[in-house]
Amino acid sequence: MNRRKFLKTASASVVASSILNMGQALANTQVAGDEYRALVCVFLYGGMDNHDTIIPYDTDSYNKWAQIRQPLLSQYTTKRDLAGLVPINTPTRFSGRQFALPPEMAGIANLYQSGKLSIIGNVGPLLEPVTASSIKAETAKLPSRLFSHNDQQSTWMSGKAEGAQYGWAGRLNDALISSGVQEANTFSAVTTSSAGLLVTGTNTTPYHVTDGKAATIDLLNQFAGNEEVQAHFSALGHQTSNVLEQDLSTKINQSFEANEMYNTAISGQTLNIPTFPTTLLGRQLESVTRSIAIREQLQTKRQIFVVAMGGFDTHSEQVRSLPKLQAALDGALTAFNNAMESMGLSNNVTLFTASDFGRTLAINGDGTDHGWGAHHFVMGGAINGGTIFGDIPQAEFNHELDAGSGRLIPTMAVDQYAASLGNWLGLDDTTLSSVFPNLSKFGPAPNLFT
Amino acid sequence: MTIKCTIQHYAFALLISLLVGCGGGGDSEQTNNSNITNNNSNQNSNSGQDNSNNGNSQTDTDNSDQGDAGQGDTDQDNDSPDNGTQEDDTFASMQNVSKFIQQATFGATPEQIRTLQGTSASQWFKSQLEVPASLVLPAVVAAAPDDPDDEFNLFHIEQTSLAFWRNSIAGQDQLRQRMAFALSELLVVSNAGGEVLTDIPEAVAAYQDLLIQNAFGNYRSVLELVTYSPAMGHYLTYMGNEKGNEQTGRMPDENYARELLQLFTLGVVALNKDGTAALNSEGLSVELYDNTDITGLARVFTGLNLNEDDPEELINTRFTKPMQIFPESHSEKEKTFLGLTIASGTDAQSSITQAIDHIFNHDNLAPFVSKQLIQRLVTSNPSPDYVSRVVAAFESGKFVLPDGSSVGLDKRGDLTATLAAILFDSEARQVASNTGGKIREPILRFTHWARAFNVQNIEPKYIPQLWETGATADLGQHPYRSPSVFNYFRPGYKAPGSKSAEMGLVAPELQITNASSIPGYINFMTYFVMGQQQEADLDELKEEFDEIGVNFDLEKALQSFKPDYGPLLQIAQVPAELVSYLDLLLCANQMSTQTKDNMVAALSKVPNDDDDGYLPRVHLAILMVMSSPDYIIQK
Description:
Chain A: Keywords: Signal. The complex is a heterodimer of chains A (450) and B (635). With 450 residues, chain A is of the alpha/beta class. Chain A has helices at residues 59-73, 106-113, 132-136, 149-158, 168-178, 219-222, 227-233, 243-266, 280-293, 295-298, 318-342, 414-425, 429-435, and strands at 37-44, 55-56, 86-88, 99-101, 117-124, 189-191, 207-208, 302-309, 349-355, 374-379, 388-390, 412-413. In chain A, the strands form 2 sheets. In chain A, strands 1, 5, 6, 7, 8, 9, 10, 11 and 12 form a 9-stranded mixed sheet that branches. A 3-stranded antiparallel sheet of chain A has the order 2-4-3. Chain A is globular. Chain B has a domain at 445-474 and 516-634.
């Protein structure tokens, strides 16, 4: 099939070409010295509904949105009416438009208002700036396999569809190593989920940790003095001509050694970690906090963490599932911010969200379908907080940023978002351009940091 | 409970009679002649597991109201009366038997290795087609609380898992069960959500049975049954899907339309017949469809909802019946996708039939499905030629077994022919090349253990660990409980930074292999291998049973999943013998000399214990084998 019907109709209404006024050039926020810095990616599997996260709040925009979303809105137990939403300060460049967060995200709204968190609007995978017209004219160069979960997860993490080898955070860490900011370290990339692609590079392998401690093989205590047993379970020096078996034994060996190192580092440490919610995400961010707390023992100067929560693929029963997910996200982010502040590390740790894609503005009965661009959060003491970067297109159909049914065409590339984070880790523009070769096709990366 | 126990005992009785029936060699009671090789009986080729005279077979169609389910197997013996005229040497050696049975079932038993050697593998395959299906739904129904409004009853809910473990370990229909499990990783539904599909276990149970009953059927029927199944309807959110409404902007739910194409039938890019991507003139792969195809196809799957024929019927029962069509909710619009236009005004049933026919006849279907089934059963990276050969069987619906007889009903999509083509292919039968083999999934490793050591008293209800094995501290995988429709691992997963990926190879199961899951699996196995269940403090479990009102038999609980290490204890004095026994039984003699030597050295240091004799040595030996890369890579 061609793209004839990709767009429902063309439209004359043109949204301001926001790519140009996205922000200033990357400020040189490279750091000198030995200051610790960590990025924490919260990956929201399934595609979080951007239209039900950053909600129009000025009366005109709200009414347009509410009309389209009415069948859902009438069913929410916590009302998403103007009185129930949590408004946030909106930059003047939005010319009087205002925004709010859903009631379940009051904690995040509070972080925004107090300058600890900002919103990145309409970010998504792009190869070049495109519009509804250029897609319709088939002149647009598009990322492959748009709207497909696994491929867009992979594209968000690596720029390529499923099967990709290296994620951008892994490549950033590779660059940190090659530029001498830090030495290769087993614990510079840590995941608590299966989202390891993001933090995989040629010199960067994700380390998996669960509940703040490294897993151990119980059996080994029983055979402590038996060196052949120890060698066997660590797959030490395992020889084989079979390629998969080589990969597996490498993995077993690396895991074994990393687990030992991690447990040595954590042993004898008493950590005073503030309480986290017992949600899946809360527990993962607590794990991250515990790892950050032993950063000196692990000898890391830069770390990149990936945590994940699922369930955002709200094709159905969105009113029942989405508020719970948003509340879980809200609770975990608030707790993580508290933890970093209490440890005095707020300026050293930046958390950001990512997701497969946004969702349709149109509803399908009781849910929404796969979209493209979405709105995200960055959080931490180092960021330029309490503002919105990028665009929040109006909640309407058939405009230049509508890929059909209100699937937003991104106006900020993931590459730009990621480059800004990489810059904060200490990489210069030249290095970032080599990590993100398409960067030059877009306007300057947003300056997320003060 | 009585019903369930009866079923179980029935299954055991069958299992035992099978073993007796097929044993040319030694007595099939727990033989004292421990070494598999020593018990090499003088088989003749007609002594194989010939239970084709199993006349009372309750064929799977009997309790199925689901179209032409399972016709593949019931017609089998009419279709190919010849028992084969050529010699089938597939099972020439015990090593060959071990390898084949591990690919075709949930694990090889010592008896199988001993008794099948020298018999006809073709005959074994055909006899498996005739074994009555072991189902899941009866166990779920039997465990339903008397009062349907009874709140959350874990014992009822977990029957889907418990029946899976019983069937996969003790079911006589091993080939069928294994194929159904492979299909369940392609056509994924999951009760992981903790919501409707968890609370109403009948839904997933009926889906499991659908795959079990059609494991030897036709992929076209499977697609249709899946499309109408409430489990899939709920899982991919098209149950209750309404036609669009231009006034309100409401669109049909696209979820099933997308995943049906992307995951269940065609994939995303055009494929050659050998499973490789077809490239355009610029050398690029070609995407098959875009979002207009998805929105077009989404209209087809509107108007389906739970069956409401009988207003008195319990919702749990409705979830076991095909979804019903509600014409007023079905889109009257034209439905265009992949070059097909279904005329406006076409009704739901006809639209679904046309859509599935169109997808089923797409060139991508055979390579897409065939390659994934090869990956589940034999190797992660089949050669293009291997894929082509299986595709030929899938498309022609026919496969000639080594004995010269043929299987399949000569129709495109025949799963019996496809399965035979996968298992009997030279690439599956020869020692794997350096790029061959696959990682055994954690679920299979556990069932392999249970079958290899003749685990007795398969009462998973007494083993809380088996109610949920999905955590990385356990198996990191649970049947029918994938985190998403993408299964636990993707067929196209290339492990970042790995040698296989550098060579362009995929390694699906490496996706769930990490620093947490590697020790987690070993610890999980340690519990079972060492028989810690037999020493567990079961007070808490008993309390839970009492609360649910389920009879708790302490003796049975303590004996549940009890392995028989008798044969191993007999040879444990000589570590090398122990290692070679396990090598044959679990690794089809694929263990490297390096691993074996190291194991012998390690085991030699574990002395004969005053209390336990060589039991600690046996435990360690099994755990070492089952955690070795030599075993975990099935090659």
